Amino acid sequence: MASRSIPKTAPRRCRVLYVEDDAESLALVEELIAGRKDLVLLRAADIELAMKVARRERPEVIMVNVDLAALGSVPLMKILRADPATQVTPVLALGADASPKAAVKSLEAGFFLYLARPPQAGPLLEALEYALEFGALERAEQSLKESL
User: Fold this and answer.
1) Mean pLDDT of 52-80
2) How far apart are CA 50 and CA 46, in angstroms?
3) Is 63 helix (H, G, I), strand (E, B) or coil?
4) What is the DSSP letter of 96?
5) Cβ contacts of 65 within 8 Å, gap of 6 or more
């Protein structure tokens, strides 16, 4: 009896949208996640472009340089949470301020996690992994609610 091999499916590639206007910071993040073949890094230099990309691509995680968000963290999160494309997407805040106060402020605004810039490989990859897992659970819960 001939055995059939089970076709392998391509591993799912998760989309991470990084909202960053600084070329050096963008290059650093690209380098830090280069080894993760399961991640696709999407880029946007401002919030307006980020929302267009998010609506089109539906990223699993969004990372935002909060220092470029001229409108502030709270209004930014209101925009992200009001849009169906991003309302359950975990959003990581990256900022130049490494103080606990900056982290608390970002968490209170609704960000998933806060990382000081420039990000370090270990904490960034751990934060992404945690956000991807959390986002998958949030999307599953949202899908379940919509089906009821």
Assistant:
1) 87
2) 6
3) strand
4) S
5) 19, 20, 21, 22, 25, 94, 95, 117
Q: Indicate whether this model's pTM tops 0.70.
A: yes
Residue type present at position 100 = P
**Which residue ranges form the domains of the chain, and what is each CATH number?**
14-147 (3.40.50.2300)
- Predicted confidence (pLDDT) at residue 140 exceeds the cutoff of 90: no
Read off the pLDDT band of 1 (50, 70, 90).
very low
Peptide bond between residue 118 and the one before it cis (omega within 30 degrees of 0): yes
Please identify which residue in the block is written with the tokens 């945690």. Answer: 130
Backbone φ, ψ for residue 18 (5° rounding): -115, 120
**Cα angle: 8, vertex 14, 18; to 5 degrees:** 160
